Amino acid sequence: QVQLVESGGGFVQPGGSLRLSCAASRSTLTFVAMAWYRQAPGKEREWVARIRSNGFTEYGDAVKGRFSISRDRNSMYLQMNDLQPEDTAVYFCNAHVSYVAEIWGQGTQVTVSS
After folding, report:
1. What phi-psi label fits residue 48: left (phi over 0), alpha (psi between -120 and 50 degrees) or beta?
2. Mind listing the pLDDT tens digit for each residue in 37-91?
3. Where is 27: in which H helix or E strand?
4. Which helix (H) or strand (E) holds 1?
5. Cβ(38)–Cβ(32) under 8 Å?
6. Adjacent-strand bridge partners of 102
């Protein structure tokens, strides 16, 4: 059973940066894709960014140009720059370990406030 553990969340002022990490219990290189989602209070879970097995990356319109997704053998990362209050949410790591199976991490809180 593959497990995902997020870290790196916290409190930051508007305009600041954070780097989230998602550590997998085994190599990510065979995963079909990995992604970050977020969920703000009272809102539905929102897709943020995705990185496919070939390295191709995609971003949601709300974060394009500010966030950057990457991964190495055992982890995935989300570099978040120019954070704004509307980025406040619980951020979740997601992995399609195969075309028919996906797993989620437990989430890490990001709070952006002055």
Report:
1. alpha
2. 999 999 999 999 999 999 999 999 999 999 999 999 999 999 999 999 999 999 9
3. none
4. none
5. no
6. 96
Q: Three-state SS for 86?
A: helix
What are the phi and psi torsion angles at 74 (to 5°)?
-125, 0
Cβ(105)–Cβ(35) below 8 Å: no
Residue-wise pLDDT for 15-29, tens only, equals 999 999 999 999 988
- Strands 108-112, 10-12: pairing is parallel
Measure the CA–CA gap between 95 and 87, rounded to whole angstroms: 21
- Please, where are the H alpha helices in the chain? none
Supply the DSSP symbol for 85. Answer: G
CB 80, CB 18: distance < 8 Å? yes
Closest-CA residue to 86 (of 66, 106, 105): 66
Apex 19 CA angle, 28 and 6, nearest 5 = 50
